[in-house]
Automatic annotation (TrEMBL):
It is an enzyme of class 2 (transferase). It comes from Dioscorea alata. This is [Myosin heavy-chain] kinase protein. The keyword Kinase applies. Keywords: Kinase, Transferase. It comes from the Eukaryota. Its EC number is 2.7.11.7.
Length: 444
């Protein structure tokens, strides 16, 4: 990431530069290759939690023909699973072609995106399909019905659809904004906005990397956040850009839909902002947090909002009688929190310290750290979660307990697959998986 070019250069963002060093992609052609296979509450922080990335940047390998030979292998554990079947490492999808930047789980399928510009599709932890864009590493993926939306480093959002004849074939069916809308707006002088000195651009397009995507299924909307400091609102029915909001003073790293027309944005400028859609326009409701640390991840659950920051902390807010109030801080990482996910009562965070932390939120709002998942050799950049189907016989989980499969994508070029549960030990103590296994340590 280059400071001062589009994405800004805030103090919090500077400490993450080693994790995001990439060459800016110009707005290339639309030709894409398709392959069938192959006032805010306080934020608390401590200086001891600030640790910069200790690994030197690895050059990105661009694979010109990624589908001629699959660069993925499913590395199953060579050891027996732990006796406790409710937790542990299930396997590792090892990538040889690029760092993993984005994940999305939908039903039986897992989509993985990387800086090689490829999107891989997995089914049952086996390679199922794949497709590729000619420009822009894949920074975000969301699935809406039969369409897959991908956000890219080159500022574009691409739309893909599964073939009705062959489920392994994915075809690009559009780009946001569409060429038609772009041409129509380009002839109207009022459609241009000033983005920097001596440069104007159309308001309906991102002119810097699309860093995050979030779906509002209730209202049929897609939100995109960008390093250009704006978030945009797209109508899913016709892919029209309805609104562009200049939301922050630095790059937007996270956007999360909260329901009821409420949207949250987190930025490298150190703020978390809450927006509400009224009469078709988004208005700023309040600033939840202002800090010197970059806000790097957001996730919204039932009555709670979590924000991860570059100092390794996770702040959270809860809906109470007086509205959204600061509830506390989760301290589990030594370096920047880069991604977050929720599953039932669980909140999961991935970090530049190469670990994944799992907390369980109780009815009283208290959080118990259930697990620290270790095994990655690089920063954990993205997470995805899906509920594990119950087995017909046995299954390990107790009655009424839910088990989840957690996917963690890392800059070590791998995706690890974990099983976690909401179970809390009755007698306290620590449960450890065998020491020769990448450990999943439960703390009560």
């Amino acid at each position: 990431m280059k400071d001062g070019e589009g994405g800004g250069g805030g103090r919090g963002r500077a400490m993450l530069s080693k994790l995001f060093q990439t060459e800016r992609s110009s707005f290339g052609s639309e030709d894409d290759d398709v392959s069938p296979r192959g006032s805010g509450s306080p934020c608390y922080h401590s200086d001891k939690n600030l640790t910069s990335a200790d690994s030197s940047p690895t050059p990105y390998d661009m694979s010109p023909s990624p589908f001629l030979k699959s660069p993925w292998t499913l590395a199953s554990p060579a050891y027996p699973f732990p006796e406790d079947p409710t937790a542990g490492l299930l396997g590792s999808l090892v990538r040889e072609e690029g760092h993993v930047y984005s994940l999305a789980a939908s039903g039986e399928l897992l989509y993985t995106g990387s800086d090689s510009k490829n999107i891989r599709v997995w089914k049952g932890r086996k390679e199922f399909s794949g497709f590729k864009s000619n420009s822009g590493l894949v920074k975000a993926i969301v699935v809406a019905g039969d369409r897959i939306f991908t956000g890219h480093q080159d500022g574009k959002i691409r739309i893909w659809r599964v073939s009705s004849k062959d489920p392994t074939v994915h075809k690009r069916v559009g780009t946001l904004p569409s060429l038609k809308d772009w041409l129509k707006s380009s002839i109207n002088p009022n459609s241009y906005v000033r983005v920097r000195r001596h440069r104007n651009t159309l308001w309906l397009r991102h002119y810097d990397a699309v860093s995050c995507l979030s779906l509002d299924k209730e209202n049929g909307l897609l939100y995109s956040g960008s390093w250009d400091k704006t978030f945009k609102v797209w109508r899913l029915s016709d892919c029209k850009c309805l609104e562009s909001v200049t939301a922050h003073e630095d790059a937007i790293n996270a956007v999360a839909v909260g329901g009821g027309g409420v949207v949250f944005t987190g930025s490298a400028d150190g703020t978390v902002k809450m927006w509400k859609r009224e009469e078709g326009r988004h208005k700023l409701v309040r600033v939840l947090m202002m800090t010197e640390w970059a806000v790097t991840a957001l996730v919204v659950g039932d009555g709670v909002v979590y924000a991860g920051t570059s100092d390794g902390l996770v702040n959270f807010w809860e809906w109470r009688r007086r509205g959204l109030e600061h509830g506390g801080v989760l301290r589990g990482h030594a370096m920047a929190v880069l991604c977050m996910a929720m599953a039932g009562r669980l909140v999961i965070s991935g970090s530049a310290d190469k670990t994944v932390c799992v907390w369980r939120r109780g009815d009283d709002g208290e959080h118990v750290k259930l697990a620290v998942l270790t095994g990655h050799e690089g920063p954990v950049k993205c997470l995805a979660v899906e509920e594990e189907e119950e087995e017909e016989e046995g299954g390990g989980a107790g009655e009424g307990e839910k088990r989840w499969v957690v996917y963690s994508g890392s800059l070590d070029r791998s995706v690890k697959v974990w099983r976690v549960t909401e179970k809390v030990a009755e007698n306290g103590g620590v449960h450890r998986t065998p020491l020769h296994v990448p450990r999943s340590t439960y703390v009560y």
